[in-house]
Input
Amino acid sequence: MGHRPRKEMIAETRAKLVAAARHAFGTVGYAEASMDDFTASAGLTRGALYHHFGDKKGLLQAVIAEIDAEMVGRLKVVSARADSLWQGFVDECTAYIEMALEPEIQRIVLRDGPAVLGDPSQWPSQNECIRSMSENLQKLRDEGTILAVDPEAAARLISGASLHAAQWIANSDDPEATSKKAVKAFNVLLEGLLKHAGRPQNSNQPALIGSTQD
Output
């Protein structure tokens, strides 16, 4: 039987390390996770970890990248189910905030990630998030659904608000209650982008968000 391709073996080794680290980070947290424990559970050595990821921090980045990709996939499904571009946009933003209730995302992405890797708004994945959100906002502006706001500026503000809301939930003593408050307030903010009858498109007046009723 012939040897397996080196590329395939490398991918398998990386996948084993990421899976073992993801389990450890998600159960005991980054600080308590032992490199020896999760390399042993993957049937590999510390040398393999250092070779592929540099160190424990590099492995955390890989784990977060994997979780982030899964989150993006789930959010695309959410937005695709909506009956309008606007509703899909709102649903996707809301779903992202609500994901902060999930234990793995809470601990790895929203608590340990920022503590170890720094401000999430500076992570490489945020560039793609801003780009995608800007494109959707441009389409919504072109179709006349929202006001003539700069798409990138709005995307950065919305992304920052949703990220802050998610971190607030993840670090809250009562995540469920905090999530409900965050989602309600966030959706009121998004309503301010909509063109309302009788309000000029380029009005300098702020949206009357307080007029939204429960």
About this structure: The CA atoms of residues 71 and 96 lie 8 Å apart.
